Amino acid sequence: MRIILLGAPGVGKGTQAKLIAKEFNVCHISTGEMFRAEIAKGSNLGKISKEYMDKGDLVPDEITTQIIGERLKCDDCSNGFLLDGFPRTTAQAEALDKLLNEENKTLDKVVLINVKDDIILERIIGRRTCKQCGTNYHIKFNPSKLKEKCESCGGDLTQREDDKEEVVTERLVQYNKLTQPLIAYYNNKNLLSSVDGTLSVDEVFHEISSLLIS
Ligand code: AP5
Ligand code: MG
Ligand code: ZN
C-alpha cells in the first residue's frame, strides 16, 4: 500500500502515521523527521535545512525530492510506504509521480486530515517529541505516562525548535500558499479522502484505517 497523509502542521500526521504504519506494515517516511535527524548529526544537509526550518519556510524542492528519491529505494519500502509531510508543493507531487511511474507503481490513497487553525496552535505549542524515536505526545491531550520520558523507548521528551508561536504562524502561511493546492491536485486524480482531525487520536486512527481497507 502506498499512502500520503496530507494536512497542515500539527493536524496529527506524525501521530497517525506511526499507528497506521504499524497496523498496515508499511514504512513511515517523514521528511521533517529526516531533516531533524540530519540536524542532530550536524551534517551539511542538516545545516542547510535548519536555516529554512527555523524560519518556518520549506526546504527547497530539489533537496527534498532528492532525499525522498533515495529513501524510496530502500528495501523496507518494498511492502509500501506512508508519506508524512511529503509532498508539500506541486513540484514535489510531480516529482513523486515521476519516481513512481519509473517503477510502474501508483499511489493508493491520499488522506487529508482537517483541523482548524486555532486548535492547531494549541496542539503544536503543547507538543513534546521523543529525542530518540520521534514519538509525539501532548502535555494536555496525549501525555506520556512516564511524564518527561517516552513510553516507547524511555528517551527524553523535548519541544521542537520550530514550535515557537511565530514560527508556527509562518508554517501555516506556507502550508496555505504552497501545500493546499495539492488537495485539488489529488482530488482530480480521484485519490483524495478526508478525515476530521479534531476527533480523538483513536477515533482518527479508526477513520483512516477504514478508509484504507475500503
Ligand atoms: P514536519 O516535521 O513535517 O512538520 P509539520 O508538517 O509542520 O507537521 P508537524 O510535525 O508539526 O505536525 P503533525 O501533523 O505531524 O502533528 P503531530 O502528530 O505531531 O516539517 C517540519 C519542517 O521541515 C517544515 O516546516 C519544513 O521546513 C521542513 N520540511 C518537511 N517536509 C518538507 C517538504 N516535503 N518540503 C520542504 N520542506 C519540508 O501532532 C501535533 C500535536 O497534537 C502533538 O502534540 C500530538 O500529541 C497532538 N495530537 C495529535 N493528534 C491529536 C488528536 N486527535 N487529538 C488531540 N491531540 C492530538
Ligand atoms: Mg509531524
Ligand atoms: Zn521514544
Automatic annotation (TrEMBL):
The protein's enzyme class: transferase
Positions with a binding annotation for ATP: 10-15, 127, 199
Subcellular location: Cytoplasm
InterPro entries assigned to the protein according to its UniProt record, in alphabetical order: Adenyl_kin_sub, Adenylat/UMP-CMP_kin, Adenylat_kinase_CS, Adenylate_kinase_lid-dom, P-loop_NTPase
Catalytic activities: AMP + ATP = 2 ADP
UniProt pathway: Purine metabolism; AMP biosynthesis via salvage pathway; AMP from ADP: step 1/1
Binding locations of AMP: 31, 36, 57-59, 85-88, 92, 160, 171
Keywords: ATP-binding, Cytoplasm, Kinase, Metal-binding, Nucleotide biosynthesis, Nucleotide-binding, Transferase, Zinc
Superkingdom, natural source: Bacteria
Chain spans, region NMP: 30-59
Binding sites annotated in the UniProt record for Zn(2+): 130, 133, 150, 153
EC number: 2.7.4.3
Record-annotated Adenylate kinase active site lid domain positions: 127-162
NCBIfam families cross-referenced by the UniProt entry: adk (TIGR01351), PRK00279.1-2 (NF001380), PRK00279.1-3 (NF001381), PRK14527.1 (NF011100)
Similarity comment: family membership: Belongs to the adenylate kinase family.
Assembly mode: Monomer.
Swiss-Prot/TrEMBL domain comment: Consists of three domains, a large central CORE domain and two small peripheral domains, NMPbind and LID, which undergo movements during catalysis. The LID domain closes over the site of phosphoryl transfer upon ATP binding. Assembling and dissambling the active center during each catalytic cycle provides an effective means to prevent ATP hydrolysis. Some bacteria have evolved a zinc-coordinating structure that stabilizes the LID domain.
Function noted in UniProt: Catalyzes the reversible transfer of the terminal phosphate group between ATP and AMP. Plays an important role in cellular energy homeostasis and in adenine nucleotide metabolism.
Protein name: Adenylate kinase
Species whose genome carries this gene: Clostridium omnivorum
Gene: adk_2
